[in-house]
Structure formats: C-alpha cells, structure tokens
Amino acid sequence: MKRKILSLIVVLVLIFTFVGCGNQEEVQEENQENQEELEENEEEQGEEENESQYPVKITDGYGREIEIEKPAEKIISLAPSMTETIFALGAGDRLVGVTTYCNYPEEAKEIDQVGDFEGPNLESVIEKNPDVVVALAMGDDEKSKLEDAGITVFLQDPQNLGEVFDNIKKIGTILGLQEEAESLTSNMNAKKDSIVETVSNYDSKKVFYEVWSEPLMTAGPGSILDEMINLSNGENIAYDAESLYPEYSLELLIERNPEVYLTADDGFKTVEDIKNREGYENITAIKENNIYMLHPDIVSRTGPRIIEGLEMIAQAIHPEAFQGK
User: How does pLDDT run across 210-263, given as a tens digit for each residue?
Assistant: First the structure.
C-alpha cells in the first residue's frame, strides 16, 4: 500500500514538474514577444520623434543655408568621401547614384554611376530624382539646374579634421541619423587622441610630404595633411609655404633635409624612382631609407577613414612608438 502511495506521489510530482516547465516556457515566450513588441514600439517612436524635428536648416561649406524638409530617402553622392560617410552611417541602401571614383566599400561599386572625371551627368542625376545631392564642389550652372529640378544640393570640402567631423554630422542630419553621426565622430575623435598620445613622448622629426613630383608639390600650412603631420609629432618642413598645396623647390627640400619622406602610392612612382632623383642622395630620409608610400584614398579622402590615414602617417614618422601594438 505504501509503495502505491509513494508511486502516486512520484507521478504527481512529475506531472506538476512538466506542467510547470510548460507554463514557464509559455511565460518566457510571452515575455520575449512583449520585449520585441516594446523594442519595435520604441524604435517607431524614436523615428517619429526624429522626423518631428524636421524641417531643419544646415549651412554647407560655402555658407549656403539649406533647408532639409525630412530625412533623405534617396541620395546621390558625387564624392568618394561622401559615399564612404553615407555607408559608415548605415545608409548605403539609400544611395541611388555615385561616381566612378566611389570604390569603397565594395558595395559602392554596384551603385549606378552618374559622374566621372568630367563631372556629373546632370540628366542621369535628375532622372533618378534624389532628395539630396552631396558633393565637394559644383559649378553654379550645374547647381542651379539641379535646384531648378527640385533637388537639394549640399556642398562641403573639408580642409581639416574639425571640418570632417562637422561634415559627417551634417550628412547625419540630412539622413536623419544624428545619433549615428555623433557616435561615429566620437569614435574617430577618441582614436585620434589615442594616436596623438602614442607618439607624444618621442622627439619630433622633420617631414616632407610629396603631393606631386613634376613639378614637385607638397602640403602646406592649413592643409589636412599638414595637420596630420603635426598631430603625429612631426614637423612639416613646408610650414611657411604660402598656399595649401604649393610647388616646392629642390634646393629648399635639400636645405631643410627631412628625416621622413611621405607620399601617396598613386601608381606613378616607386621608392626606387624617388631614391634615384638628382640631388636626393643628400637628404637624410633618402639615405636612411625612410620613404613611405601611403594608401592614396585613405590619407586623402576626408571621410571616416581619414583617422586611419592619420595612423599611417604617425606610424611612418614614429614606427618605434607602435612596436608591439
């Protein structure tokens, strides 16, 4: 009799255990559904609140005040740096047109090309009916034709890191992605500060940046390359040039004798070409083989990857600071 009662108790315990497990699973599923519904509602509410901030006015790099009626759903980029910025903000799927030079990220190559070295194809641009066209610069006639077609034109050509950050934030406003733009620029700024800190305890070195070889041209004061050299604890020997990208004499290059020679790997020259130039054998950077060919897109495009360009320059000037990192 006792065995029967004991068996019955065991069976009842198992039944209630299974029922309890079943109820627990149902509760967990219900909680999961409620959480997902809550997140969806919060996302929709956030989008509604974001859109309620519009229309907004922003000022482009040429002092033009532009009204953005609502977050752009269709956008055309006529500059690789702008294209990279739009992708970095997570809005690459809104791009309906780019240029032949927009080669990063890989997905950019799959977008219809509406511009090349000769400029934008205005008919193609207008046909795609974008909300906004972004570019570094544009002729007055081209801009007027697009605006007459009801297309907003935003122009900005950043010349320093501060302007790069500002440009990213304004594109964020154009896209309704202000939080994403704030996060992106905050991360870029933090990495910049880390690079500066890494090289800060080393002696500065004299640096020359070759922009072009014939005629010899360099990066002058006020250029973003000059800023990155200075942030990398380098001394730009063209510190007193009279323009952003001036011609530079061989005599002055030899006289100021840079310890580090930087240039872009643009496909028109090699390290050996530079070494074999007349008079270059007298330059310390050449004698000590401190010649660095940098990725042309990363060090020159004023978009999110410019901080990678800063790191490349810092590593070239102070490789000892990055050993073991």
Answer: 999 999 999 999 999 999 999 999 999 999 999 999 999 999 999 999 999 999
Residue 86 belongs to domain spanning: 56-185
Omega into 55 within 30° of 0, i.e. cis? yes
Query: Do the domain assignments include residue 159?
Result: yes
Sequence-distant (≥ 6) Cβ neighbours of residue 245 within 8 angstroms: 211, 217, 218, 219, 220, 223
Do 181 and 208 lie in one domain? The reply is: no
Does 31 reside within a domain?
no
In a domain, 4, yes or no: no
Query: pTM value?
Result: 0.84
Cβ neighbours of residue 99 closer than 8 Å, sequence gap 6 or more = 77, 78, 79, 80, 83, 113, 114, 115, 116, 120
Q: At what angle do helices 161-175 and 224-231 cross, to 10 degrees?
A: 120
- Whether 32 is covered by a domain: the verdict is no
Residues 38 and 42: their CA atoms lie apart, in Å, by 6
Confidence of residue 19 (pLDDT cuts 50, 70, 90): very low
Given 185, 220, 242, the domain boundary residue is 185
Same domain, 205 and 318: yes
According to DSSP, the β-strands at 260-264 and 205-212 are parallel
Query: In terms of DSSP H, where are the helices of 116-249?
Result: 122-128, 140-148, 161-175, 178-199, 224-231
Q: CATH number of the domain that 279 lies in?
A: 3.40.50.1980
CA 71 from centroid of its chain's CA atoms: 20
The whole-number pLDDT of residue 324 equals: 73
Side chain identity, residue 285:
A
Number of H helices, E strands in the chain: 12, 13
Q: Which of 108, 85, 84 is nearest to 96 (CA)?
A: 108
Instruction: Look at the chain and report how many structural domains it folds into.
Output: 2
> Is residue 180 located within the same domain as residue 63?
yes
Q: Report cis status (omega within 30 of 0) of the bond before 105.
A: yes
